[in-house]
Amino acid sequence: MGGNSFGNLFRITTWGESHGEAVGAVIEGCPPRISLSSEDIQKELDRRRPGQGMGSSPRKEGDRVEILSGVFEGMTTGTPISLLIKNEDIDSTPYEKIKDIFRPGQADFSYQAKYGIRDYRGGGRASARETVGRVAAGAIAKKILEQERIGILAYTTELGGIRAERIDYEEIEKNFFRCPDRDAALAMEKRIEEVKRRGDTLGGILEMIIKGCPAGLGEPVFDKLEADLAKGVMSIGGIRGVEVGAGFKVARMLGSECNDPLGPEGFEKNDSGGILGGISIGSEILIRVAVKPIPSIFMEQKTVDHSMRPVVLRIEGRHDVSAIPRIIPVCEAMAAIVLADHLLRQKAIGRR
Amino acid sequence: MGGNSFGNLFRITTWGESHGEAVGAVIEGCPPRISLSSEDIQKELDRRRPGQGMGSSPRKEGDRVEILSGVFEGMTTGTPISLLIKNEDIDSTPYEKIKDIFRPGQADFSYQAKYGIRDYRGGGRASARETVGRVAAGAIAKKILEQERIGILAYTTELGGIRAERIDYEEIEKNFFRCPDRDAALAMEKRIEEVKRRGDTLGGILEMIIKGCPAGLGEPVFDKLEADLAKGVMSIGGIRGVEVGAGFKVARMLGSECNDPLGPEGFEKNDSGGILGGISIGSEILIRVAVKPIPSIFMEQKTVDHSMRPVVLRIEGRHDVSAIPRIIPVCEAMAAIVLADHLLRQKAIGRR
Amino acid sequence: MGGNSFGNLFRITTWGESHGEAVGAVIEGCPPRISLSSEDIQKELDRRRPGQGMGSSPRKEGDRVEILSGVFEGMTTGTPISLLIKNEDIDSTPYEKIKDIFRPGQADFSYQAKYGIRDYRGGGRASARETVGRVAAGAIAKKILEQERIGILAYTTELGGIRAERIDYEEIEKNFFRCPDRDAALAMEKRIEEVKRRGDTLGGILEMIIKGCPAGLGEPVFDKLEADLAKGVMSIGGIRGVEVGAGFKVARMLGSECNDPLGPEGFEKNDSGGILGGISIGSEILIRVAVKPIPSIFMEQKTVDHSMRPVVLRIEGRHDVSAIPRIIPVCEAMAAIVLADHLLRQKAIGRR
Amino acid sequence: MGGNSFGNLFRITTWGESHGEAVGAVIEGCPPRISLSSEDIQKELDRRRPGQGMGSSPRKEGDRVEILSGVFEGMTTGTPISLLIKNEDIDSTPYEKIKDIFRPGQADFSYQAKYGIRDYRGGGRASARETVGRVAAGAIAKKILEQERIGILAYTTELGGIRAERIDYEEIEKNFFRCPDRDAALAMEKRIEEVKRRGDTLGGILEMIIKGCPAGLGEPVFDKLEADLAKGVMSIGGIRGVEVGAGFKVARMLGSECNDPLGPEGFEKNDSGGILGGISIGSEILIRVAVKPIPSIFMEQKTVDHSMRPVVLRIEGRHDVSAIPRIIPVCEAMAAIVLADHLLRQKAIGRR
């Protein structure tokens, strides 16, 4: 209910501000006797860590996870798992100067309006740093999915107007942008460099494929699988759209085109994106999300201070040019959490 | 937790199958001493009722709501409000013949996979009839919003490839499609007739504007306002995509374009769609959703029966050509429920 | 969240006022393919129905349950089950005269303070009539427990100062008070008659035994089995105390007396009441509850009206002398709901 | 849902095992701009810390709380508050020898049955050490209550058969047992010493009074104030009974005795314990709980190992003789959390 928890049976609660002591997550409902080590979690944290390449912010986040509870002799015990990641290499100086100014495109104005107080350092709770807790928790969800042979694959299909023209799964892990088209990845690199020089930022589109999901997950009528997936990814800062299967294209399709025929081997195409009536059908689940440009641009911006007096703002500090590719493991984490939760929910009522 | 409840402080639980006795909703958490009559609810139900015009299914649903509890002498009492709408004019005969066949694009396969049993008559719980409960509950949410002068306006921007080229609010209630462009509405009419003749169906796009929403609604980091709105609309059958503000267009915007500058009067444009950091900013909230074509087409379709044996299916019965415009009050209802819930949540922690 | 729902995976929402149209319940999370008929529910409703004997209110409640959804061809479908029981033989006249007076021991004052409005007819939502929904929902929970061979047995151990001196299970269903001691039952009958003549009312104590509960149910640290059972029964109007196993007697026990030794066949006594660390151990679960006298006495009472002006009140109408024995099936229902919920929760994380 | 969270709007999640790295709590829903320092929390932790006097375990728990998030410049920000308390002075050696043995009266058997794995060191999650998180979170709830001038006072009324014969509030903080009767406190001291010599342990009874609670808190019909209070305290390890107001005495009262008459100044006595119909009435709220003897006795006990083979067990290690008085701040914490939660819930729907 507090807005910082997500999931039902598999439930995560995250906490922490960008420039506070630490960030973390508590995971409830993880089944007992699943093998879990800090390496399992570290691996995912390393995928979202900054400073790995181009277009990326130079802040050094070591992001070493500590497992404080819920694991005994390498196995989960069924009790809550508390994860802690210290905040390191923090420099709040650039934020002191602008602590009374609302940065455009950021949550400064809305947090002030809602709470009447805000930790302005590094964006506080509204910082992308918050996603560390999601990724750490998602790593545990992925362990549950692994047991059921469910895998999640996410990649960049568009960045700054450059689109992947082909989907080569082999290519994804080979380039910085996790783009399944090598040529597009090269063009994205150039685009990022060019925009970075001007102090501007870029948006893009991601695609996520969930493989191996059994039929039967999803709880109509409100906790439909696509509804929970949509909420999961839309709760990530900077996501402005989400679609499933054919997505917005359905608006121009006929029913006779959109329906997926069934044959003895199952569904013969997959415009449904693997979900019908809110329940998985055993096909691949396909989700696409739109990522807005990072609002921290190094250009003059028109805005106001807390007294609504006009200000010309020029942000300093360290920021990425695009939330892509670092947002990819965050999207995967949210999908993993939704699926782990629905797996457990289905077990509760499931056929024996 | 059961998947048939939605909301936290303002919480609805819906129930009912298409060809069962009745459908209904229980509304918890409605504040006391709000004036409420069955007419308030009937008005909204009438907006989603079939048989009102072209492209619409001839099933006669009187859809008279009965308020069974929670209202005393015309006022809410703070106790749960139970609403019941009888199912009338039911003919299950067409479904008898196909009870062992999975209709493409429908939830037949997935319900069978999940529950191992399904009420095949009229699609059972997976029928659009289920949305009656949402609309009835949404009417009560709207009463709460009225008190705060928050209004929701939804309209069709695209149907079967025909797009509204202009947004004339005055026009919306004047045509069947609730399309804000009269010429587009006429073209949509023709498109529907033509497709109906072939037994096919159409998809489209809706837009929703929420006016008068105060700044401060939304509960980061998971129950962000756009996340709950996305879940709300994505939980409606047939919705395949949702976007907020600039939506998928953000993928091709620069940060310097996407950020909304602030002036002494507030935000100077609204690409954020009225939400920053998951919290409303006092601007109009803008949501767009993609509606897939109704899967019940009157053409031969390739499918299988419960034993996965090939079947050629030709559906009979009564069906709309498009979920638009009847899905409009359903989308509005879900948005109203999300907003009423967040209003109450903000009151709980709110500034005094 | 609204206070009218109970349970997590097996979740009930009840609604309805004493003199409104009807009372009812919506049950979410009932597993599919459990055989369920209205007789299964009627049987339990008949056990709590008034007018069955001595000390009982003459209001004629037919209490015929209607199953409106969630059951198809005699089997649950996994969709929400909506139950409706009409309110019949209502006479609100006696309440008109006292609508501005707070009856002592009743919820009149507190509802007015909380909501600023109340349906004064028959006590509105605060009436014992509300428990009809609990009993109806509990009947479904019992069907789930039956499948696992879990049974609940409740009986009167004390009424108006008369105590059962022996526990003869065979006797329970043979007397009106469901008292396991025939002699005590006869004494209780006399006590009731005597007190009724004076217009006064009586309290008592119930005991509940849950048989066949497997080890492993309960979710520490907050949703311990005894914690949920305590909440379940304490939420019933008129219950003022609850204890598990040795209960309040533990205050005077030594650790060496209180601990239950274990032998090869399991626990060798049961002072724990079948629960250790919040989790069932496979022994019988034992709960005891204190029931206060019904506050509707036919004697002059000192009280005030809505303006806090003194009034001497003499209640008219129809009322039982004791909530016992009609509260017994209500207690059983709450226990059944708690157990069904925890059974499903354990299945979700359970050992395979 | 995971069993390690409690509350709705004010919601706590605790984590941690007795001999793990640390224990802690995450608090969601604390309103913004409440002054909060680590001293506020430390003060309460110090009240439950061991090693303070007689009958108390010699384990040295420094129990220094660290606030990791949610507080900025001494004020809450509305974001989740993460609290961490390291586990210090741990010696797991005594537990190594008995890791395959079920200690009577403990949760060893039930955790093994439920999860198939358990952290046997110091009782793991089932240890009283778990209550550190409750007390820390309760300290924050108390800050909210302070703002509304609500106070909680708990004290010992019975220990090892010695009963307080008078209630002198001034005396409570002056003796080790927080007993409101100085003579009884002296007798309790002797009783503890005597029993300690034999290696045995003692139970007792606590009373809690909530002062200053406004009328209107509580959410019928399931989240009644006494139901949530009952759940809150019954979820604490070792509590076996709870009663409100006259409690189990109601069983022998007449309605004419039990009803509290109302006069122009309000209720003229308080057998209701300050709650009617599940809602506070503005009078003092009175709760009484039964605490069982600590099961860790230093005497030979009959039990079995994991293979259900008979074993004679003699426990070593460090343990209190009675959970009293250290359980007192834990009970207060749970009551504070329930009240803070209901305060916020009432604000959400409250009269303006």
List descriptors.
homotetramer; 352 residues; alpha+beta; Chorismate synthase, AroC fold; 5-stranded antiparallel beta sheet; 18 strands; 28% helix
Helix content of chain A: 25-40%
What percentage of amino acids of chain A are in beta strands? 15-25%
Radius of gyration of chain A: 21 Å
Number of distinct helices of chain A = 9
- Strands of chain A, total number: 18
Task: Reconstruct the topology from this structure.
The structure is a homotetramer of 352-residue chains.
Chain A: E1 5-6, E2 11-16, E3 22-28, H1 38-48, E4 65-67, E5 71-72, E6 75-76, E7 81-86, H2 93-96, H3 108-115, H4 131-147, E8 151-159, E9 162-163, H5 169-172, H6 182-197, E10 204-211, H7 225-234, E11 239-244, H8 255-258, E12 262-263, E13 266-267, E14 275-276, E15 279-280, E16 285-291, E17 301-304, E18 310-313, H9 327-349
Antiparallel strand pairs in A: 1-2, 2-3, 3-7, 4-7, 5-6, 8-9, 8-10, 10-16, 11-16, 12-13, 14-15, 17-18
Structure description:
By secondary structure, chain A is α+β, with helices and mostly antiparallel strands. Chain A has one domain (5-348): 4-Layer Sandwich (Chorismate synthase, AroC fold). In chain A, 28% of the residues lie in helices and 22% in strands. Chain A contains nine helices and 18 strands. Chain A has helices at 38-48, 93-96, 108-115, 131-147, 169-172, 182-197, 225-234, 255-258, 327-349; strands at residues 5-6, 11-16, 22-28, 65-67, 71-72, 75-76, 81-86, 151-159, 162-163, 204-211, 239-244, 262-263, 266-267, 275-276, 279-280, 285-291, 301-304, 310-313. In chain A, strands 1-2-3-7-4 form a five-stranded antiparallel β-sheet, with helices on one face. The first copy, chain A, has a five-stranded antiparallel β-sheet with strand order 9-8-10-16-11. A two-stranded antiparallel sheet of chain A has the order 5-6. Chain A is globular. Chain A starts with a strand and ends with a helix. In chain A, 67% of the residues are buried. The model of chain A has no long low-confidence stretch (mean pLDDT 95).
